[in-house]
Amino acid sequence: xxxxxxxxxxxxxxxxxxxxxxxxxxxxxxxxxxxxxxxxxxxxxxxxxxxxxxxxxxxxxxxxxxxxxxxxxxxxxxxxxxxxxxxxxxxxxxxxxxxxxxxxxxxxxxxxxxxxxxxxxxxxxxxxxxxxxxxxxxxxxxxxxxxxxxxxxxxxxxxxxxxxxxxxxxxxxxxxxxxxxxxxxxxxxxxxxxxxxxxxxxx
Length: 203
Description:
Blueprint: E1 2-3, H1 4-15, H2 21-30, E2 39-40, H3 42-52, H4 55-88, H5 92-103, H6 116-145, H7 149-159, H8 186-202
Antiparallel strand pairs: 1-2
Helix pairs in contact: 1-3, 4-5, 4-6
């Protein structure tokens, strides 16, 4: 566990660059896993390092995770196909077809295990296989749709007023003034401006 005053030097040493106050504040907002306001757990610290790593490194790590998951999924399909060939007496291509239809939840119902051993095996095999398939889809979705943390922070800083872009804030609980909330989106800002204008006219 790290105290907030120890966090910035520790993170700076790992990522080999200066960490702005705004980045620290946004990391604490995004990664408060255990609810502690005055300290950072090891899990939160590791996630912070991951979010602050260069974008090229994040993309490389994501591609590596996808490759490992795809390989795991393929091996799981081959395992299921091989076992069903023995328990059901099916040809390998039929077993592979059944496993693919099952793990992708298509469920055509054209082939079904008829032996007790095959039925019991499919229950456990499909449960794990669905989890692996879900992990593959989640990782691919995150790789192509999720906006990296540093990109989001850069956009937020550009949206701040010029006099606040220096990021001279301190996270709440770490000494000094409390950190301001993350900047609102354009729609919220416009709505707030309209409400302010309406109040002035009404006065």
